Amino acid sequence: MKGLPPPRPIPLRDRSSLVFVERAQLDVLDGAFVAVNADGTRTHIPIGGLAGLMLEPGARISHAAVALAAHTGTLITWIGEAGVRLYSAGQPGGARSDKLLWQAAIALDPAARLRVVRAMYARRFGEGAPQRRSIDQLRGIEGVRVRQSYALLAEQHGVKWARRKYDPGDWEAGDVPNRCLSAATACLHGLTEAAVLAAGYAPAIGFLHTGKPLSFVYDIADLYKLDTVVPEAFRIAGQHARGKLETTPDRAVRLACRDAFRRTGLLGRIIPAIEEVLSAGDLPRPEPPPEAAGPAFPDEVSGDDGHRG
Q1: Structural domains of the chain, ranges and CATH numbers in brackets
Q2: Which end is more exposed in the chain, N or C (fewer Cβ atoms within 10 Å of the end residue's Cβ)?
Q3: Is the Cβ–Cβ distance between 56 and 66 less than 8 Å?
Q4: Per-block average pLDDT, block size 10, for the chain (309 residues)?
Q5: Greatest CA separation found in the chain?
Q6: How far is residue 200 from each of residues 77, 100, 268, measured CA to CA in Å?
């Protein structure tokens, strides 16, 4: 008797955002993805329903767990404390090259790249970018507006704020507002990287940001940062300053970001936004060459364009 076909991976837009794991052993036991605690108790993690799993210091993971996460299209990222360092990431995407080639072609065309950066500016601030400005000039203008937003949010939430400053190598040396911001942006970057990879794009090929392993992730995350995680970071920092937090600021920020992602439906918005801003480059998508041979054994339809299946 023929069994049921294997389930399709859940599309990214229908998943929950992120789960952070520290001081636990991740494994597949009795067919389930679980975190095994020091006392032997198990915590079930619905791996196929997550966009990403972020492993902090003290977490260990088995080969079976990595394989299951890859099969379900869930990004696994090895990070430092609170996500201020990224050590490695397991790639769930990469099943197709047409989008990656399109992204690279736009990035290599100066005029097309500028059009994309201007589209990102308009989407981020709700108004058109100033005319006759270079990418470097637009980057400077954005930096000024972001600093002004930080100062305004700090004032609204009663937070003592000087400037954005933190040392990834010494997490505890930063003040609470900066640590809250770092934790919040780490959550957003993890979610955005999962979306970029699942859609079949390259995290390193950026437009406003360049030269970093996650340049494109930063580009796309910045479209939502001021509307989602930054206000939550300053709100939590304000609560901490008034002694109203019942947990650590880092954990409070993560929970607040998780709720913000759900409330705003962010996962369902990121991939369409990528398509929209890249379309502003006004370059056609690469077509497969006429002599290209098709696959001998076509793959089954998977959850997202870039998922390997």
Answers
A1: 12-90 (3.100.10.20), 98-279 (1.20.120.920)
A2: N
A3: no
A4: 66 85 92 90 93 90 92 86 72 71 96 97 94 94 95 95 78 82 92 87 94 94 95 96 91 91 88 94 81 58 65
A5: 69
A6: 17, 6, 16
